[in-house]
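Hello, quick one for you while I still have it in my head. Could you read through the record and tell me how the C-alpha cells relate to the sequence? No rush at all, and the record is pasted right below.
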Amino acid sequence: MTVTKAKPAAEPVASTRGRRNIEVGMVTSAKMQKTIVVLIQKRTRHEQFEKRLTQRTSLYVHDEKNEARQGDLVEVTETRPLSRLKRWRLVSIVRKSVLATVTGAQDTVDVAKEKGGSKGRKKDEPAGEPAKAEAPKGKEKTS
C-alpha cells in the first residue's frame, strides 16, 4: 500500500508586478485633453566634485478627469504605456495652485504684464502704451 501525502492548501500568489514608482512634481502645462506635463526636480551630489546638481525631468501624465491645472503640485505613478509619450498617471493633487484658485480654471494670466515686463518698451515709457517706432538713424534721402 502506498502512502500519499496531502498537498498543502494553495497560498495566494504574490503579484508578479513590481513596485511602481511614485513621484511628486509641478504641473507645467495642462493645455492638452486628459494629459498634463509634470516637471520633476531631483537634487543630487556629484560623486567626484561634490557639487549639488539639479536634475529636471518632464513627464507626460494621464489626467482622466482634467482636474489638474498649471502650477499644481501633483503626485503621479508609473503605469503601462498609454500612448507614445505617456507612461505615468495622476494619483492626486497635493496642493492646488494659488493662481488657479484666484483667476479660475479657464483664465490665463500674462506674467510679463503682472510683473511689469518690458515687452519692447523703453524704461521710461508707461506700461499701458505701446512702444513707438523710430526712424533709422543715418543718412537721410532728399529728393
Q: What stands out?
A: Residues 107-113 have pLDDT under 50 and may be disordered. The helical segments are 98-103, 111-115. The domain at 22-104 is CATH 2.40.50.140 (OB fold (Dihydrolipoamide Acetyltransferase, E2P)).
